[in-house]
Amino acid sequence: MDEFTLPCPVARECDACDGDFELDVYEAETAVGVVCMTLCGDCFDTGRTPRLYVPSAVKLALRHRGHLVDAGMALPEVAA
Ligand SMILES: [Zn+2]
Ligand SMILES: [Zn+2]
After folding, report:
1. Nearest bound ligand to CA 18?
2. Apex 76 CA angle, 75 and 79, nearest 5
3. H helices within the chain, ranges in order?
4. Ligand number, closest to the Cα atom of 50
5. What's the whole-model pTM score?
6. How far is the CA of 66 from the centre of ligand 1 (A)?
7. pLDDT in tens, the chain (80 residues)
8. In the 8-state DSSP scheme, what is residue 71?
9. How many Å lie between the centroid of ligand 1 and the Cα of residue 39?
10. Alpha carbon distance 78, 6 (integer Å)
11. How far apart are the C-alpha atoms of 48 and 5, rounded to whole Å?
12. Is 7 left (phi over 0), alpha (psi -120 to 50) or beta?
């Protein structure tokens, strides 16, 4: 994984399995842009990721862009 820490908030539960073991936030490329998601240690180790449908992926991509903008890591462009 990259060394830098994402500015994104870690959710209370895993986006893929709703577990709460060793939660951490990760970036993922989707058809609509980069999103962030919270995964537990098990899901990360096994490469399990939540199934994203386009409407929610767009929402997640915009939300993630907001995280980066808030942290001064990206320009506030809207892709969608
Ligand atoms: Zn999980
Ligand atoms: Zn984010």
Report:
1. 1
2. 105
3. 41-46, 54-70
4. 1
5. 0.81
6. 24
7. 455 689 999 999 999 999 999 999 999 999 899 999 999 999 999 999 888 888 899 999 999 999 999 999 877 665 55
8. T
9. 5
10. 19
11. 21
12. alpha
> Which residue is it, tokens 């970036």?
27
Nearest-angstrom CA–CA distance, 20 and 4 = 23
Structure tokens at 62: 């915009």
Ligand at shortest distance from the CA of 6: 2
Contact between 36 and 13 (Cβ < 8 Å): no
Q: Which ligand is nearest to the CA of 42?
A: 1
User: Position of tokens 């058809």?
Assistant: 31
